[in-house]
Amino acid sequence: MSTTPAPRASDAIIVPERITPKPADAESLDVWGFQDTRFAIDGDGNAEVLGNRYELSGQKLTRLMPWIRDTLGIDISASDVFRSQYPIAIPPPVANAGFCTAIRDFLREDQVTLDGELRLRHGHGQTQEEMFAIKYGSVARVPDLIVYPETQEQVEKLVVCAEAHGVSLVPYGGGTNVTDALRCDEEEPRAIVSVEMRRMNRILWIDRVNLTACIEAGAVGRDIQAQLAAYGFTMGHEPDSIEFSTLGGWIATNASGMKKNKYGNIEDLVLDMTVVTANGVLSRTAASPRESVGLDWRRMMFGSEGTLGIVTSAVVKLFPLPEVQEYGSLLFPTFEDGCGFMQELARTPSVPASVRLVDNLQFQFGQALKPASTGWKVYKSRLEKFFVLNVKGFDAGKMVACTLVFEGTREEVAQQQKAVTALGAKYKGMAAGSENGRRGYQLTYGIAYIRDFLMNYYIIAESFETSAAWSDVLPLIRNVKKKLEEEYARRKLPGAPFITARVTQLYRTGAAIYFYFGFYFKGVANPSHVYLELENIAREEILRSGGSLSHHHGVGKLRRHFLPSIMSDTALAWKRSVKAATDPKNIFGVGNQGL
Amino acid sequence: MSTTPAPRASDAIIVPERITPKPADAESLDVWGFQDTRFAIDGDGNAEVLGNRYELSGQKLTRLMPWIRDTLGIDISASDVFRSQYPIAIPPPVANAGFCTAIRDFLREDQVTLDGELRLRHGHGQTQEEMFAIKYGSVARVPDLIVYPETQEQVEKLVVCAEAHGVSLVPYGGGTNVTDALRCDEEEPRAIVSVEMRRMNRILWIDRVNLTACIEAGAVGRDIQAQLAAYGFTMGHEPDSIEFSTLGGWIATNASGMKKNKYGNIEDLVLDMTVVTANGVLSRTAASPRESVGLDWRRMMFGSEGTLGIVTSAVVKLFPLPEVQEYGSLLFPTFEDGCGFMQELARTPSVPASVRLVDNLQFQFGQALKPASTGWKVYKSRLEKFFVLNVKGFDAGKMVACTLVFEGTREEVAQQQKAVTALGAKYKGMAAGSENGRRGYQLTYGIAYIRDFLMNYYIIAESFETSAAWSDVLPLIRNVKKKLEEEYARRKLPGAPFITARVTQLYRTGAAIYFYFGFYFKGVANPSHVYLELENIAREEILRSGGSLSHHHGVGKLRRHFLPSIMSDTALAWKRSVKAATDPKNIFGVGNQGL
User: What CA–CA distance (Å, rounded) separates B127 from B255?
Assistant: First the structure.
């Protein structure tokens, strides 16, 4: 049996090239993102974005620092820098000579590395505590070796060697995990080998008749997007991490993309997959549109977080590139109005590809990220502001914004736009133009760099997310904000915390909610630990308020201690026994996360 | 931890009544369906449908018998009846005194039965070989005892007793299974206890804000439908077996309803479930709209076919009853034209709730089921026929029909109707009115009785289904028909076989295909076995042609021998090890189907 299903249509396109990363796309090891991009403070004390990759790039953000000072109630000084100690001391590798000798049989020298900084990088994702640790703290354990398989056969052989020589394997994709899933277990006595999958990044075939593609699991989102687009297709899966995260990572974390209203979440998009497990390869002869074939092991891979095996390829659904893509935005007088709109919209047949509602603070943050304007642009912007505040009578301290992406046929998009405008009006919403909508989405990728920038100025910030039934959405957000404010005050932490929420994904029965929480930590002992403590308190409040443990980030090591509060002991025991049965030697010993 | 999640909205409707089946709805034990309905042949040799439950009921079907004679090429005589021997000899129960004594602690006398005919009934579903066996053959093994739990606690206690006393439990819902899943394993030395779930049929709550309901797993489809409709809601799940099948059965077989284009398949509709397993209860605190919480045991229940535990309740999505429901139909000159239409329609944003395309033979069959008409109706029908054949120039031996159900808002339905008509025209389709569409769907339930009727006249017939990528749909249907015709001729079986296909479910990447196959068997030794042999040959051809093992019927004992040809050995071993790990004593020992 072949280990990846063949395309069904005989004229499928074969796309044999493996993507080799361009030097210009080199990624930072110590902070988020590409090396060519970072936030900085210029000579005048203004924030600016270096590089030319994003819309924000090259911009002077004159309002940002004043707004941050104002919001946090702290006089942040541009010259008072919290100096990064990166790279901190890197633990020496735990040796496993037998394994190292064995893998030389099928891996070239350039497919193996012991490099310290790379090992450090492969031992973490992007949580605040991980990023804080590699710059200001310490790590007790990192992977001892990194391997770069290029074929499924090599992955299979790696697993055989791991079993034979008592090694633990950790699959690694884009390194964008935010649940401490990549963090190595300190207690692990075995050598830990990071299996970096990004060289397995080919689109094996595109079946344009049946609208499917078979893609290797190490393919990075942005490459998948570009390669498919060249043939007129898209997967439609756009998580905020799409520049770096991989198909395999999406499956392992049960990812959600911003356009899921149109294209579905990852579990809706993947028809089939091939997985290398502790006892061989899970594979199928054909990917079916839908079927009933007994206990379906493929479904178990969504959210498996590296514990059950390594996904090596998947057959995914394709969509033709949309005829039309339009942005839109609406302003609502209050968050409550906006939520009412979101809930009703979710039950209509006219849900745009993406709809997001930010609260007032996040709306203000978006304004603060606007570059210094001049000339007519200032005039227009002032006029708009006057209209919203004085003619419409919106309260600048309460109003909120909703941004939208429409994708589809011309007719479909026109119909959705009409329906959205009409429904918006019912909730006192005011159309605020496509440009504001477009900008909101463009910010997504550039803004990801701000967290590491702010850390240089003693500000720690992070996002966490949940999903909740519609009736819980507003109370949950209110409860979490209140709880964090109370706990912040009780601890007498500096200034005021930054707490903001947005509703990012719509479902008929509820929504996904994204929180940002940050604070100024100069003078605070163990700020990263204090953050984590507060985040855990927020999570307890989320669960108490009916929210889920995670909408799409996952469990990892960060949230596994909450599992007993959301499911029965039997459910937990069941998960553990499935793991024990399918990986008795715990080869994929990444810490029993999600189990 | 409570074992079923609470509603999230505080004003949820509590629907405490348990449904008690009405005497008028008594079900037959020896044939499909309600006792009040059956096909018969009247004094004039015409087929008629007795009872008054369905649209067909009370009708004289003057064309049916002539059409069947013509199609099968056999002069079937109304007086030559293949007499049913029902009930055949019923195997005596295997006793387990310890278990019987133990369950008396928590079950009343009326919750336990040893009745022979009921035990016979609980030992089979609705495959032709099972129905043939209970009337003309023999069964080696049936359940030894039937229990009727009324609460989850009772189910839990049953499992504890089963483990303590070495008993095998088989969950039983509507008894409509078509994969031999209920057929008892002849080799099973333990007492087999059928756990009839239909007394656990309450809707525990309806959350009208969040559009969810918590429903006990033994609730029958038609009751769920009626109870929800009383509050203005629907689940939208309408498998052809909805009159008898249960929520728990839908989950266990990974069911698909005819309106899945609008509402989704069962895996899309169930948000959460509670399952009694060999080692306790799998349950959650809240049903989330969508989440990422590690290996999700709930996903493993879809298609588990009774092997992993007993689903006792589930939280499902609700939809408001549609503002508008409309039927439609289209005629196409050929099946190829119709398939082209279906494939293109599947990729539009305007897919109606249900779309079915029948081939020419099935179209003719629908005409043959039309009652004798008189007066204006005859005139109109002749005029229509003249128009289609002479004005449009369709070939009566090639034309096919597509039936549609539209559900949604007035605007949505109007838009879909417009789009369907326009797309139909592109494929030479001709709108054939809502009445023909309505009739096509109404036939679904009445026609289910015909199989057992025809068996009385030496005709054996059965359906089987698959799903396939679009490029495989036409070749697969052609190959299967050809293969069956060849094999039929090669065996020198009587007259001509009846082989027909329809495309019943649309997906962007492919479709579900439903076959009916039947033949006249007088003079054929072991006709049921011959049928099974031919069905297996058809299945081999389906797999060779790219089809799946099953779209929604499942694997059961009927198709488990095909599993090695669709997945790797490791995949099979994995499934078995999950079973062994979660049910080490094989309490749910229904025969390792789907494993």
Answer: 16
Q: Which two tokens stand for residue B191?
A: 């007492």
Give the integer Cα–Cα distance in Å for A465 and A504.
10
Task: Test A282 with B573 for CB contact under 8 angstroms.
Answer: no
Residues B287/B383, Cβ–Cβ less than 8 Å: no
The answer to whether B293 contacts A566, with C-beta atoms less than 8 Å apart, is yes
ipTM: 0.96
As given in the structure block, the two tokens for residue B180 are 């031999």
For residue B506, the surrounding DSSP H or E stretch is strand B498-506
Which strands sit side by side in the sheet containing A324-332, from one edge to the other?
A430-431, A324-332, A400-408, A354-358, A498-506, A510-520, A459-469
Helix boundaries (H) for B237-374: 247-253, 260-263, 266-269, 297-301, 335-346, 360-368
pLDDT band (50, 70, 90) for residue B375: low
Q: Which residues of B touch A595 (CB under 8 A)?
A: 294-295
**How far is B7 from chain A, CA to nearest CA, in Å?**
10
pLDDT at position A3, please? 78
Asked if the bond preceding A149 is cis, omega within 30° of 0, the reply is: no
Burial track B425-435 (b if 16+ CB lie within 10 A, e otherwise): eebbbbbbebe
For residue B312, what pLDDT is reported?
Answer: 98
Place of tokens 């229904």: B590
Q: Which two tokens stand for residue B169?
A: 């439990």
Q: Which residues in B lie closer than 8 A to residue A3 (C-beta atoms)?
A: 568
Compute the radius of gyration of chain A from its Cα atoms: 24
Residue of A nearest to B277 (CA): A570
In which residue are the tokens 């198709």 written? B559
Instruction: Report the DSSP pairing between strands A459-469 and A498-506.
Output: unpaired
B516, B477, B350, B329: which is closest to B419 by C-alpha? B350
User: Residue A438 and residue A441: Cα distance in Å, rounded?
Assistant: 5
- Cβ neighbourhood burial of B106 (10 Å; 0-12, 13-18, 19+): middle
CB B579 within 8 A of CB B307: yes
Q: Which of B173, B169, B181 is nearest to B197 (CA)?
A: B173
Residue of A540, A499, A505 lying closest to A518 (CA atoms): A499
Q: What is the pLDDT of residue B381?
A: 75
Q: Where are the alpha helices (DSSP H) in B107-205?
A: 116-122, 128-136, 152-165
Task: Tell me the β-bridge partners of B168.
Answer: B192
Rounded to whole angstroms, how far apart are CA atoms A518 and A59?
24
Average pLDDT over residues A480-502: 98
pTM over 0.80: yes
Report how far apart, in Å, the C-alpha atoms of B238 and of each of A209, A470, B177, B225 are. 30, 26, 15, 9
| Number of separate helices (H) and strands (E) present in chain B | 20, 21
Residues from chain B contacting residue A286 (CB–CB below 8 Å): 469, 546, 548, 566
Are A389 and A381 a contacting pair, CB within 8 Å?
no
Closest CA to A337 of A218, A452, A428, A215: A428
- Give me the pLDDT at residue B379, please: 63
- The rounded distance, in Å, linking the Cα atoms of B179 and A101 is 51
Nearest to B501 by CA among B520, B521, B528, B474: B474
Q: Would you tell me how many other CB atoms lie within 10 Å of the CB of residue B573? A: 15
pLDDT digits (tens, 9 = 90+) for A191-225: 999 999 999 999 999 999 999 999 999 999 999 99
**Exposed e or buried b for every residue in B232-263, given b needs 16+ CB within 10 A?**
ebbbbbbbbbbbbbbbbbbbbbbbbbbbbbbb
Q: What is the pLDDT of residues A348-376, one digit of tens each?
A: 998 999 999 999 999 999 999 988 775 55
CA–CA separation, A328 vs A439, rounded Å?
A: 10
Strand partners for A511:
A468, A506
